[in-house]
Give the backbone structure.
Amino acid sequence: MSRTALRICPLCEATCGLTLTIEGTQVTGARGDRDDVFSQGFICPKGASFGAVDGDPDRLRTPLVRRDGELREATWEEAFDAVAAGIRPVIERYGPNSVGVVLGNPNVHTMAGALYPPVLLAGLRTRSIFTASTVDQMPKHVSSGLLFGDAHAIPVPDLDHTDHLLLIGANPLESNGSLCTAPDFPGKLKALKARGGTLTVIDPRRTRTAKLADRHLAIRPGTDALLLAAMAYVLFEEDLVDTGELAPHLLGLDELRAEVRDFTPEAVAAACDIDAGTIRTLARELAAAPTAAVYARIGSCTVPHGTLASWLVDVLNILTGNLDRPGGALFPQAATDRTPRPAGPSHGFALGRWHSRVSRHPEAKGELPISALAEEIDTATEEGEPVRAVIAVAANPVLSVPDGDRLDKALDSLDFMVSVDPYLNETSRHAHVVLPPPPPSQSPHHDFAFNTLAVRNQVRYSRPAVPLEPGRMAETEILARLILAATGMHGADPSAVDDLVIGQTLGKSVQEAHSPVHGRDPQELAAQLHGDTGPERRLDMMLRLGPYGDGFGVRPDGLNLERLLAYPHGIDLGPLRPRLPQPLKTPSGKVELLPRPIVDDLPRLRQALHERPEGLVLVGRRHLRSNNSWMHNVPALTGGTNRCTLHIHPEDAERLGVANGAPVRIKGAGGEVTAPAEVTDGVRPGVVSLPHGWGHDRPGTRLNHALKEPGVNVNQLLDGSLLDPLSGNAVLNGVSVEVVPVAERITPLT
């Protein structure tokens, strides 16, 4: 007998509400939830394929433990015994930094991935922390930290109300948005145009988003920061700066004017391959629009000046008075945020509090560049011990990080590795223990991270749509037991982890003067928490302490878990609203427009005025039916346009003798790969594009569908040496490559 159940989609950042059709314990269909307060029925191909993702027969169902060199099925007890026996001796002999923790992108798409890794890191006390952020978004975190004092204070465009939207290096018609949680991003762009607004897209590819735009400018890859700096120059030069109500909250406006004086449109035009007159027009239109927002994403982050570009995005929003106002870019307020503290000076944001052991890369937001993971494992130095053990949670860095071949070998040399992953993939195949979480239908869901980036304030929660299958373990319990095994508490009840967090959080909250529970008894508060599980009790606590919460009775109409459960389609908390100066945590209590690390990096941008890449340059691309390497094992999400081909412009193809569909060899500093050419004018001359997340051809995996058409790993073209120095983010776009038909010989790059 069939039934339906509601579920928030965990397959991309749009977080759409789904209505699942379930036969017994199998998800047989998925459609958009028309009553969802946020997505209102929108669904993309990934969400429609929820059942296929959920029921993939290659998903692991029991733990694997390496015995006599082979991974074999084991009981949960045997698996966690092996974790404790593998991790603890490494820590005790070599110290906490000898254990590396690698967190992948899927962590932010699960409730467990949001709640438990921070506890693991605190318990281990390791500085060897690597996440997907440094191949994706770390420049935005760093620029926000420097500007606003908080790496998580990321303004998002007010898509529903803006009159003018400038997109840079973003393709939301295929990505569904990133660092901007917006169900039906395509519909919001079409609505913008329908109400007479303007959409401008800056991208070296004529993406689906670019085709929708009023103006598309095919910029030279990697020069976004130069273009944005020139626009800032025009605003100052032509007296178009109007900060409006922001003025009392700004520090360093005059100094900023002086720092951008070298970036005239005429000076940057040749580097960007955009004429000076067009650059001036972009700046004038931005200033003249009634409301406007500049939004940039991965194409502007994964380049040599990613942090400067991210900083300049907010600078332009500030100079035009569009930061923190409706129709501009605003700071969301999630229901699980802590109760806002009073505005005023705070501790600010620091970079480089420690450095990586081998190449001395500075930490950013407590993390080291994931590009440095291989050398931190395989290279001995006099300073500290190498990483000898790795805990990988939902991470596949062999495919997602530069020079996967080197990392492949490094992981194989570890004393111990544990991987929390539903698949035996290119990375988890190296583990000594693999702990598989259940399918998403069997897990609860609340979007902690994405609600802090949402274009409308709302709150939703999904309990598991399907009971936990016998023999499975909830992902929350897996991670709780992993914490206990890795921190010397193996065998303790996993509820101890949740109790510890609840006790610490309430103990701190009752001491904060601005907290709704100031001065109360934390044990008495803990006794009031509701929920069937430890994670639900933690969610209840966060809702009650949050900006819309009931404050444990202080605000009777406020949020708590019981009220949220009564609204299965979610609760709308209203449009984004101006919040300054409250979100600011800088030492001055103001937006610090020109932080010292930015000033120190600007000479490097000035040098870029005179640099031109030789030959072809490489950029990535996204597919609507994919999210990194996650979904290539699902037949419904491969094929069609979701193929691993090299896009090359007809002019370049003709010059190089490349035929459409013929194999070509692509060579970069890190290695070479062979892929079929796809000749298209959708990419500008001088640029080639290869998608991210492919290369499923390594032995020892259990990804049967992905193995049929494995594609090639674009990151193998990179050697990992190119990083944005402020954020440690890998430079994945705008790198020089050689392309030749496979019959020809490639000469080494110089």
Remarks:
- Residues 149 and 585 are 4 Å apart (CA to CA).
- The longest strand covers residues 671-679.
